[in-house]
Amino acid sequence: MASSVALNDAPAGPAARTAHALAVLALLAGVLSALAELLAGPAYRIGALPLGAAIQTMRWGATVALGAAAVALVALLLSMASRAPARGMAVLALVLGLVVAAPPLHMYRQLQQLPKIHDISTNTEDPPKFDAVLPLRQGARNPVDYPASTATEQHKGYPDIEPLMLPLAPPAAFERAAKAAGAMGWDIVATSPETLRLEATDTTLLFGFKDDVVVRVTPQAQGSVVDVRSLSRVGGSDFGTNAKRVRAYLKRLADSAATP
Predict the structure, then answer these.
(1) Burial profile 130-164: b = 16 or more Cβ within 10 angstroms, e = fewer
(2) What is the pLDDT of residues 154-206, one digit of tens each?
(3) What is the pLDDT of residues 61-109, one digit of tens each?
(4) N- or C-end of the chain: fewer Cβ atoms within 10 A?
């Protein structure tokens, strides 16, 4: 018992001190990486950083976070071998580093797998045209034209995106479409019950990117056809954002139309 107490009271050895120092370093690096990633988007939104610098900040944040996770793993192994009290801090730093690195790595994976397009339409042969939002798109990097190459890439990457058929008369279908657009939280720019069209703008959460949406209702023998087009103002690839928006809207509209 006496020898055990003496051993526990002994000052920490070099390995234990190294483990503690590495754990502190990894935790600090993880916290700084998290702050860099969280602030990159808001900094772009307020104009403090250009888009390229904001994206680069997130990229470096993920790189540093991965490095912090590696250092934390070394600290954890050293603390386990030396029975140093830094084990909890090392685990925390390891988890933090992996969590912080995960979103940018996921975005990079999406960039490699998804089509490098920023324009999605349910009708690729006759996509709905933008009109009311055109003044808002002045200075936008992406044009409103829908080239054939975009249609080809969309069919490859998002073959499920297609028009929605509703068993409703066009005026009723348009009313449901307008309500669904409002429920999506979009900023409605214009609605035209006469032409069965509406245009809106959606703003992404982190970076505040502006994406424009147009909804068109067309009469059909058995009801109505709803077409949706979502177009980003900036960016070569949208990381699947426009496709997700179109899917979410069509699902909301379909569920609404199924409700008496």
Answers:
(1) bebbeebbeebebebebeeebbebbeebbeebebb
(2) 999 999 999 999 999 999 999 999 999 999 999 999 999 999 999 999 998 88
(3) 999 999 999 999 999 999 888 777 888 999 999 999 999 999 888 878 8
(4) C
φ and ψ at 10, to 5 degrees? -65, 145
Q: Which residues of 110-257 form beta strands (DSSP E)?
A: 119-121, 164-166, 187-192, 197-203, 210-220, 223-232
- Compute the Cα dihedral for 161, 166, 169, 174 and give only its sign: negative
Residue 138 zone, left/alpha/beta (φ > 0; ψ -120 to 50; rest): beta
Q: Residue with structure tokens 């050293």?
A: 78
AA letter at 230? S
